[in-house]
Amino acid sequence: MNISIIVATHKKYRMPEDPCYLPLQVGSALAEDIGIQRDDTGDNISSGNHFYCELTGLYWMWKNVRADYKGMVHYRRYFSTQNHLKNLFCGDKYKAIAGSGDYEKLLEKTDMILPVQRHYLIESLYSHYAHTHYAEHLDRTREIIGRLCPEYSAAFEKVMSGRSGHMFNMFVMSQSLSDSYCAWLFPILKELEKQLDLDSYSDYQARALGRISELLLNVWIIKNDYAYVEMPVINVERTNWIRKIWSFLRAKFSDRKYSSSF
Length: 262
Prior knowledge:
The structure is a single chain. The protein is α/β, with parallel strands linked by helices and 262 residues long. It has a domain at 77-254. It is 42% helix and 16% strand. It is built from 10 helices and 11 strands. It has helices spanning 49-52, 55-64, 84-89, 100-107, 125-132, 135-148, 153-161, 175-195, 208-224, 241-254, and strands spanning 3-9, 21-25, 37-38, 69-74, 77-79, 112-115, 118-119, 164-165, 171-174, 229-231, 233-235. A 7-stranded mixed beta sheet has the order 3-2-1-4-9-6-10, with helices on both faces. Strands 5-11 form a two-stranded antiparallel ribbon. Helix 5 crosses helix 6, helix 7 crosses helix 9 and helix 8 (175-195) packs across helix 9 (208-224). The longest helix is centred in the C-terminal third of the chain and has 21 residues, at 175-195. The radius of gyration is 18 Å and the shape is globular.
């Protein structure tokens, strides 16, 4: 079983050693070389990284990588073999990152692996995005889906009104499913890019296309009723929960948009 999972990164960083992982410098057309595979080779959209984030890596994988299964994780966020509680207390978190054998066992049962759903207890996915970013992004996306692929409109509304979803733009899928997803996703985002004046946003808020895709993955899965299995997610960096919660409360009650990652 040939599994190729890109690890999207924009800087030098420790990488997992398992051969299923392919470290990939995303936005490499805009930056100095860091000595790993770049996403500005072959058919690519690397120069759009300010807006697409890790999706420039996803596009590069779609167009330039062939494997039985393809996937995407991030330099600080991976699928894990342990649950969240254990991951909080593990010493070397890289030892908890899933490897080829873990994926192979699951992929014998399914064509798709997704992160455990993230739950928003007091908000819908739409309201959470609207408070922390801009509702216009989702409203424009709704219009585009209604025009380009109206059969997905009901699934879009279901995701927007829901309180949980598979986030982080992480997955492992068969090549046929991954390619199908990309062929659906990127025309929507390209149209959205045309409609939004992304250059007018802060650098953080300009990453709208990458964030919208987190929600659209859920739309695509629900509409097509794809079966999947979930895996826990481990962040190899420490999350500043106090700052994150405070930023969320300011966004919800004072309309102070997020200005950085946590």
